[in-house]
């Protein structure tokens, strides 16, 4: 409810992002962590061929790792709930073959998961929050008219407490 998925979608669908990465994939992980399902979804999204039945998780993960080798990729793992460090470690090992500049975005409601993941995104400063809010809230407004609303806008930014909501 804080806009994590929406923020990730904005990044994922941005033209500059599309131009930067060779390949990209989005997988909703959700509460029931299933490594086989997640790996198969990544393979499908990345258009890496595999047999939908009969292949072991190890075989699927090897195909994923080889399919990402020397590619600059963006992966979004949305709504992650799994706190098992070993699962995270196995996933990270599969994704190490990508080219420099590859990125993984993880959205989660659980701060402990964020700390285990690849990189924890901190809250933004009040100044940066205001800059983001101002850019979006007053984008098409006449400068003279929106100055009256600046006080209200700054109260809204304060209530967001550093969350980069859009």
Describe this protein's structure.
With 166 residues, the protein is α/β, with parallel strands linked by helices. The protein folds into two domains: 4-113, Rossmann fold (3-Layer(aba) Sandwich), CATH 3.40.50; 126-160, no CATH class. Helices cover 49% and strands 13% of the residues. The protein contains nine helices and three strands; from the N terminus they run ααβααβαβαααα. It has helices at residues 4-13, 15-20, 35-45, 57-68, 85-94, 111-116, 126-137, 143-146, 150-160, and strands at 23-30, 73-80, 103-108. Strands 1-2-3 form a three-stranded parallel sheet. α3 packs parallel to α4 (57-68) and α7 packs across α9 (150-160). The two termini are 12 Å apart. The mean pLDDT is 80. Residues 1-142 form the NB-ARC domain. InterPro entries: Apaf_helical, NB-ARC, P-loop_NTPase. This is Disease resistance-like protein. Keywords: Leucine-rich repeat, Plant defense. It comes from Coffea arabica.
């Amino acid at each position: 409810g804080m806009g994590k998925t929406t923020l990730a979608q904005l990044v994922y669908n941005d033209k500059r992002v599309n131009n930067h990465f060779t390949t990209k994939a989005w997988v909703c992980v959700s509460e029931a962590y299933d490594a086989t399902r997640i790996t198969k979804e990544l393979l499908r999204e990345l258009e890496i061929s595999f047999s939908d039945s009969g292949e072991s998780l190890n075989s699927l993960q090897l195909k994923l790792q080889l399919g990402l080798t020397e590619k600059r990729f963006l992966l979004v793992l949305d709504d992650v709930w799994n706190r098992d460090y070993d699962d995270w470690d196995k996933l990270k090992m599969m994704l190490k073959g990508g080219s420099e500049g590859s990125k993984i975005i993880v959205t989660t409601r659980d701060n402990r998961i964020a700390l285990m993941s690849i990189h924890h995104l901190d809250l933004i400063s009040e100044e940066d929050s205001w800059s983001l809010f101002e850019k979006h809230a007053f984008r098409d407004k006449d400068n003279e008219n929106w100055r009256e609303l600046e006080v209200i806008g700054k109260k809204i930014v304060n209530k967001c407490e550093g969350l980069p909501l859009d």
